[in-house]
Q: What sequence folds into this?
């Protein structure tokens, strides 16, 4: 029998959930606070029909964090099946929505594009999707949510709501606020402001990139994850005070130790992909001309080299760049040979 | 008459200086603290001959920050022409090397590759090169250094040594130490450490990328730029305490204002290139398969679209990505049309 899901909110994530579940053979109905968005979801084939099924096998709340508790409680009252959500904080929501049929969730995907237009069935393929069952959670409900998430192509990880929020504060919320503060400080319109902007090179751009994201989602997130975020900022301030002390006192050995720990941890940070076969990082200096990237990417394609990660970085204000690629170790040697034959001078490093 | 330059230190930057000056018609001699490196520079055609000319038109000190003052003073004593350096801090060096014939310099380029093997004549094309004359600096010496830097393809900007150090602390040194601290905090090997690493997605990776760089250069930099770095950390700590307060007190309007300022500043941050004709940012969702990048880059090449910036980002742990490209506005429309004809769904945004 075909399984039925109802999606409350057919934007970027809700639309992708609908597409991913339909790809897995489910029938999906949906609504949106903006009826025009639901109409558009129906017209573009994202959902099978408009509406919420009271006997749906699963209801997914895909709304902004602040609206989730009320929408989840409504869905639990009007239906009989399990309900989950996709909010980026979990403790507040799980404290308010205490039904055994509710399982909190947070797919770690989809931040790059906004709205239904960005929705894709492949959104969650291989992505990490946190589920936050509590001691009250019904085992059957958890199993259904977990199976649906896996059917959408995601990997699941179960965490306590509070632990989820602490970890996300550390790897997402606090870094985001820190990037924003670096950017605000650089926005100080003093006499040398123009010079400062001219000197801001790749590292600064990398560090502040996320601050270009939509500001309007953050008041909700900061409110919902207040404790973990303030604790995270306190820890960062403490760490910065520590490194400041080492700089101020000229503690060269202490500084080096700290930076070596950071380097080792960064190099060991998993990439967005599994590393079963080992990966090689290549740095390829390229003059900035149309076609250089195509030559390199085409060569990779011809040699069947899968590009796991790719970034074009620039030297200061220069038009010359370095292409940083992460490729599978198996094919790296042939690829390097091909690059050298075409006049490139790649440097390679094994990522462990 | 052919101009002659002597380069003290034929590593990445010194080797590139030599190549760039030779490209501009200069004769270049050089030495290195490691004679084998100087030999290699000669053999690979980076320099014309080994040695320092006492009557060189210009001597460039391309050594680690801590060794520059002594090497510069030696060069000033043994020669009669202007002397410059390429150290990444300037106040300490310019305070110690007070000759009217010395002009401090700092090319904002070359951080990606290490050693002579990475040296290239094009290293400084379009790059920003800070010069730090003082009130004592001889005008003729400054003119010679400036002309040489321009001959190497760089743009020059003149700043007081102290101002240079403050700006570089803000856009490079403090962000670097902050990235390292975020990474050290994430390296806390508590019970949930493995989960944390699994949740660390693109934004965190962007922010901590620079902490993977060579730690050994930082004790020197932190020592030479102690005041500006400690001041910069103090300002960041103050800003973080401010945002923490807004989170703690639920000051939603205040948070939003801060994040909107950061967003506007980040969007207005100059890219590594001039923007004379306007640039378009394209976000192109792509499944992660060998060949996707090649198809897109080849299309760009065929349409003569210059790619100003390019990054492949991933959604969480997913194998699906979004290719973010910055291209010139003039050709963007045809490029978008070509992409759509090939089944991609790019979203574009004008960068102002």
A:
């Amino acid at each position: 029998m075909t399984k039925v899901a109802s999606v409350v909110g057919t934007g970027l994530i809700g639309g992708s959930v609908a597409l991913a579940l339909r790809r897995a053979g489910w029938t999906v109905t949906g609504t949106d606070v903006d009826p025009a968005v639901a109409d558009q979801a129906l017209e573009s084939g994202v959902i099978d029909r408009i509406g919420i099924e009271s006997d749906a096998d699963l209801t997914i709340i895909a709304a902004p964090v602040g609206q989730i508790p009320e929408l989840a409680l409504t869905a639990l009252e009007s239906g009989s099946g399990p309900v989950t959500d996709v909010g980026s904080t979990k403790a507040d929501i799980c404290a308010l929505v205490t039904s055994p049929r509710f399982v909190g969730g947070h797919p770690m995907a989809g931040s790059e594009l906004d709205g239904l237009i960005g929705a894709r069935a492949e959104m969650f393929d291989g992505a990490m999707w946190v589920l936050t069952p509590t001691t009250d959670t019904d085992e059957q409900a958890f199993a259904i949510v977990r199976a649906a998430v896996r059917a959408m192509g995601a990997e699941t990880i179960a965490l306590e709501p509070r632990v989820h929020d602490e970890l996300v504060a550390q790897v997402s919320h606090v870094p985001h606020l820190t990037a924003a503060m670096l950017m605000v400080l650089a926005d100080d319109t003093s006499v040398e402001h123009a010079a400062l902007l001219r000197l801001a090179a790749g590292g600064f751009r990398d560090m502040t990139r996320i601050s270009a994201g939509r500001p309007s989602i953050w008041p909700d997130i900061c409110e919902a994850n207040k404790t973990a975020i303030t604790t995270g900022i306190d820890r960062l301030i403490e760490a910065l005070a520590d490194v400041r002390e080492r700089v101020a006192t000229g503690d060269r050995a202490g500084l080096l130790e700290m930076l070596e720990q950071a380097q080792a941890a960064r190099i060991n940070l998993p990439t967005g992909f599994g590393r079963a076969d080992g990966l090689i990082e290549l740095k390829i200096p390229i003059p900035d001309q149309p076609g250089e990237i195509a030559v390199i990417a085409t060569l990779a394609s011809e040699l069947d080299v899968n590009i796991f990660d790719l970034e074009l970085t620039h030297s200061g204000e220069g038009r010359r760049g370095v292409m940083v690629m992460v490729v599978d170790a198996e094919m790296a040697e042939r690829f390097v040979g091909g690059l050298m034959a075409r006049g490139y001078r790649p440097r390679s490093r094994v990522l462990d």
